[in-house]
Model the fold of this input.
Amino acid sequence: KAGVTQTPRYLIKTRGQQVTLSCSPISGHRSVSWYQQTPGQGLQFLFEYFSETQRNKGNFPGRFSGRQFSNSRSEMNVSTLELGDSALYLCASSLWGATNEKLFFGSGTQLSVL
Amino acid sequence: ELKVEQNPLFLSMQEGKNYTIYCNYSTTSDRLYWYRQDPGKSLESLFVLLSNGAVKQEGRLMASLDTKARLSTLHITAAVHDLSATYFCAVVPGNTDKLIFGTGTRLQVFP
Done:
């Protein structure tokens, strides 16, 4: 059974640009959640999607958005990039929900904003 | 504001020794998770604790949950080098449906 796949693995962008990250969950999983990991702030919850609907959102500005498609694949978009957006972005999938069961994490996308 | 604090933040221990990592959280929660992250890698689920008094063990690791004290422990028995990693606890606050991660404990096991 394939795991959670995130693409791309690495990204380098400049300030002001926008970026889209992709996450393919484990087959059959309907929940996809996203997390930002930085040395200073640790792991922070961004948002969760379930059956194409955003179910929960963390405390991030509106520049951070996401969506989920009918096949449960999810994308995350960050517009008007800032230096502080440099981070490892992790997505995780589960059958029913990010807070009801263990999560399966992807390898992450390392975003560097110059 | 919810706080999930782990201590210690860094732990260097000798192989064969025992130690405990603590996870304290500041609000009610009856669900707690432990994850492991190897350097440069993603997170791997270790334990899911869903009730007060829950205890789970796998190999040299044992996790427990005391919801009244708002405390979870991850006990390491007879550490081996392969346990070197960063360990995170994560809780779901009672009035939300969000997963909040702790600060992480970086464990290094040396011969």
